[in-house]
Amino acid sequence: MMRKFLDGLYNTSGLLAAAFIALIAILMIGQSILREFGVRTGAVNDVVAWCCAAGSFFAMSHAFKHGDFVRVTLLLEKMNPKWRRIFELISLSVAIVSVSYLAYWANLFTYQSFIFDERAQGLLPIPIWIPQSSFAMSSVILLIAVVDEWFIVFSGSRPTYVVSVEERHAQGDFSSDV
After folding, report:
1. Residues 144, 146, 149, 151: is their CA dihedral positive or negative?
2. What is the CB neighbour count within 10 angstroms for residue 5?
3. Which of 21, 32, 74, 87 counts the most CB atoms within 10 A of its CB?
4. DSSP 127
5. CA-to-CA distance for 99 and 83, rounded, in angstroms?
6. Which residues contact 138 (CB under 8 A, 6 or more apart)?
7. How far is CA 63 from its chain centroid?
8. pTM reported for the whole predicted model
9. Interval 110-138: pLDDT, tens
10. Which is higher by pLDDT, 33 or 76?
11. Which of 142, 11, 136, 17 is nearest to 69 (CA)?
12. What is the pLDDT confidence band of residue 54, given thresholds at 50, 70 and 90?
């Protein structure tokens, strides 16, 4: 049941990323059309920038779990399974520390923006914690994904990201390797 929830969380994060990317396309096309009619659309640039950040960060956990995150595996591929598992755990432990640091500060920064009622400085002066919250939430989801992967490897299973890449390769899909 927990596996189903976590996989749903990562897929939802990926869907949110896709929705933000689609929103960028809609906003940019709409802005181009409205400019032709003399409508000022300067604030759209701010929203597009926030959508870029949200789309990027929400995609991280989904990409990580599906083997689409950039990983340097030259050393790992040459190791026997025992040493590979040890090095995977070390790498994931370093990632947990790093992403924990990121998540802590992203959430603290967002909380402080909320407390101080900080406003965006562009043409759309909304509370800045609103766009920052996508970064805060997605950093926590990425942390959950990395911790989840650590437990998978610790329990003796192969990393999900490795299995996903191998399944794609078995089907003849090498598009993510380009």
Report:
1. negative
2. 8
3. 21
4. B
5. 24
6. 13, 54, 57, 58, 60, 61
7. 7
8. 0.89
9. 999 999 999 998 888 899 999 999 999 99
10. 33
11. 142
12. very high
Q: CB of 76 within 8 A of CB of 52?
A: no
Say what angle helices 129-154 and 160-170 make with each other, to 10 degrees.
80
Q: How many CB atoms lie within 10 A of CB 106?
A: 21
Q: Phi/psi of residue 63, each to 5°?
A: -65, -40
DSSP 72: -
The total number of structural domains in the chain stands at 1
Q: Are 107 and 136 within 8 A, CB to CB? A: yes
| Buried/exposed 75-103: b ≥16 CB within 10 Å, e otherwise | ebeeeeeeebbeebeebbeebeeebeebb
41 vs 59: CA distance, rounded Å: 27
Domain range enclosing 65: 2-177
- Centre a 10 Å sphere on the Cβ of residue 36 and count the other Cβ atoms it contains: 7
Q: Hey, what amino acid is at 8?
A: G
Q: What is the pLDDT of residue 172?
A: 79
pLDDT above 90 (res 69): no
- Alpha-carbon gap, residue 127 to 116, rounded angstroms: 10
Among 111, 13, 16, 116, residue whose Cα is nearest residue 65: 13
Token reading at 24: 């960028």
